[in-house]
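Researcher: Please predict.
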Amino acid sequence: MTLHTTFRRCCFALISLSGLYAQTARTTPATFRTNSQMVLVPVTVTDHNGKTINGLRAQDFTLLDGQTTQQIVSLTSEDAPCSAGLVLDISGSMRQTLGTVKDVAHAFFQTANPEDEFLLLTVSTQPDAVSGFTTDMAALERGVEFTRPGGMTALIDTVYLGLSQMRKAKRPRRALLILSDGMDNYSRYSKADLMRVALEADVQIYTVIINDPSAANSSNTVPLRPSMVAKPWDHPQQQQGQSLLEELADKTGGLHFQARNAEEAKEAVIKAGHALRNEYVIGYLPPDSGTPGKWHRVRVKSDVPKVSIHARSGYYSY
């Protein structure tokens, strides 16, 4: 199955016109098919603290395909089961802080819907899918607990693997959560390779960057990556990695956080979990798709004051 097929099947999946106007209730699940005429756009709305905003109506949104405003013909909002992959950085740069990061992962699992399924991947010299998709939370917790730090950091390769593994997911709502300091010093794939795959996949990427050297001197916080762990030559790669993680979240409709201490990191993953399970899905009839493979830029806006809108940046026609 190609990445384009996977992308079409879910987030921007097309549904038949016969069922289009039957979706009048917000809580009615969308029917995902590959032979339809409507584009579905998952949207998360947050306040300035990253808290999810619920209860909005179709008239609260404006959607543009390219430069043209589109009529919104359906809006759903539901706490639906999801398939989520956790990308956990256990490389050598995380040696001093991995115990705290494990606690953060545990906080994310606590936000789970009983029908959610999870995939665990670890970042080190080689990407590792520690477990396939499972609903066994106890097994996932053990998988996280048994990880040991060490090795180089192939972050891009691991996220690339995670997106590939998401093709095996059973739930239509799909996401990756990345817990890392942003360092990458051993990947074979490039940033461009990863970004291309991320834009084609139906996966929202949530990122929590764990790095603030100034927190190491605070007696009121638990630093997740003290400055002593980083080497001087690490900083350019780390800055590039942090920029990449932010861009991945922005363009796939996920959320991006920077945590200065353990408390902020836990708060971030809890917000990510709630956002993933409380998103809107906007449906509209797209304009003529034109050339197959053409990129369509999509923007979602709202007139509701003091909110932030998070949605995928576009889709490929076929």
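Model: Residues 185 and 233 are 10 Å apart (CA to CA).
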